[in-house]
Design a protein that fits this description.
The protein is an alpha+beta fold and about 425 residues long. It has helices spanning about 5-20, 25-40, 45-60, 65-75, 85-105, 120-130, 140-145, 160-170, 365-370; strands spanning about 110-115, 135, 150-155, 170-175, 180-185, 200, 205-215, 225-235, 240-250, 265-270, 280-285, 295-305, 310-315, 325-330, 330-340, 345-355, 370-375, 380-385, 385-390, 395-405, 415-420, 420-435. Strand 6 and strand 7 (about 205-215) form a beta hairpin. Keywords: Signal.
């Protein structure tokens, strides 16, 4: 490419994206611009390729685009593309997926003005604004008798708004509904207000729900103070695991003293169960003197492992004699082989994480909960009849999925759904004025 033409390309790329950022991009504009810039990822000079890559990333911030829409339009790398294009597309996709995952672990913010709205309308609006599923599990008569909600909030965290709604409607939370949803139930007799008792940090809600003291009469050394700390999360989040180290937790009394932990080096590792949106840990301290009537400040920091955007890995050639590898983001899925065992067909696969953050070393439940199925021309999924684990390492898991297929695998494809990034993030919290028994 001539110098003159190269300069023209550089100027054009700058003008194109500058123009795009000043208007709202519609789908046709976005598709056309991405196609043009992807083609320039194979330009003659490195500088041209660098600018095309940067301008593709710039498109994510154009009004009306955003990470999800951008990724939906961005071509996925394939073997028919030049190596330079494949490599840069993989880099771009990974960067945007990491950004999307980072957004997912922030708190959902709510702006809402509801004047005498029915509770059902408020719930529907909160679902639209946050992506959190909320279900009212009360009897129909109780639902019909719900009071009107009066509220005006601006850019408040989801949990703060939800607590205020639940207080007005006299509702409580059932954290083990069996689905990724916040289940609402009638508030128990004598149960206090939720708003004002909790700390909100990112998409998490922290609250001490019970305090107990034990003093052994036969054995005076048998004494302890235990705090039941409930950690809730937005239902859309579906964290993999939470970790609370006692070395990252301080309980301060009104005179400024720090309560001594019962076990200084204790670590709470919570592997989150599917279909829950809260978990409780019991934190033990040494029993303080009776003169200590409250914990003035309980401050801590948890570490959360959270899955990012989910993607579908589709494999059409189930009779391939060689393993087929597909990579998206930081996840590599390999279809190793498909073998027949009578009417049962075994789909042997391997999942590998580029950056596991301990997501496979200690926590593998999320992998076994990933969705997988076979699908034919009719589009109807065929669920597996079970699976066997064939490999487990710090970064890999191998699984053989079993399918009952008397008619064989002709015309079928295998689909595997998985998060393509795992994000690790710390969240700090502070709770005040915890009365002791």
């Amino acid at each position: 490419m001539s110098l003159r033409k190269s300069v023209w390309y550089l100027v054009l790329l700058g003008v194109v994206v500058s123009a795009m950022t000043s208007v709202r991009a519609d789908d046709e504009q976005l598709t056309a611009q991405i196609e043009e810039l992807v083609a320039l990822l194979d330009a003659d000079t490195i500088s041209e390729r660098d600018i095309a890559e940067q301008n593709l990333l710039n498109l994510v911030d154009v009004e009306g685009v955003g990470p999800e829409k951008f990724l939906a339009v961005l071509p996925k790398p394939n073997d028919s593309m030049p190596p330079a294009v494949r490599e840069r597309l993989s880099t771009i996709r990974k960067m945007v997926e990491q950004r999307l995952a980072a957004q997912a672990i922030e708190a959902s913010k709510v702006s809402l003005e509801a004047i005498n709205w029915p509770l059902a309308d408020v719930i529907k609006k909160l679902e639209e604004l946050t992506g959190n599923k909320i279900v009212d599990n009360r009897e129909p008569d109780a639902v019909a008798a719900s009071p009107q909600i009066i509220m005006k909030v601006e850019n408040e965290p989801f949990w703060s708004v939800m607590d205020q709604v639940m207080d007005q409607a006299q509702l409580s939370q059932y954290a083990y509904a069996g689905e990724d949803a916040l289940a609402l139930v009638a508030r128990g007799e004598g149960e206090g207000q939720r708003f004002g008792r909790a700390c909100y940090s990112g998409p998490f809600r922290f609250e001490v729900i019970e305090v107990s003291a034990t003093r052994g009469m036969r054995n005076p050394s048998n004494q302890a103070l235990r705090l039941d700390l409930e950690i809730g999360w937005e239902p859309r989040l579906r964290p993999i695991a939470l970790t609370q180290q006692m070395t990252r937790l301080d309980a301060i009394t009104p005179d400024g003293e720090r309560l001594a932990p019962a076990q200084e080096q204790q670590v709470f590792n919570i592997e989150v169960q599917e279909g829950t949106c809260a978990s409780t840990i019991t934190v033990p301290f040494e029993l303080p003197d009776r003169s200590v009537e409250e914990i003035m400040l309980l401050g801590g920091k948890i570490t959360a492992l959270v899955p990012g955007k989910r993607e579908k890995f589709r494999f059409d050639d189930l009779k391939s004699k060689e393993p087929i590898v597909k990579t998206l983001g930081g996840v590599k899925v390999t279809l190793e082989r498909v073998v027949q065992n009578g009417p049962i067909w075994e789909v042997h696969m391997n999942l590998e994480l580029e950056n596991d953050n301990g997501a496979l070393a200690s926590h593998r439940g999320w992998v076994f909960n990933n969705i997988t199925y076979l699908v034919g021309d009719d589009g109807e999924p065929i669920d597996h009849a079970g699976f066997e684990t064939t490999k487990q390492t710090a970064t890999e898991v191998g699984i053989a999925y079993l399918f009952d297929l008397p008619e064989g695998i002709d015309g079928l494809s295998w689909v595997y759904e998985s998060p393509v990034s795992i994000v690790e993030r710390d969240y700090e919290y502070q709770l005040e004025g915890i009365k002791l028994p």
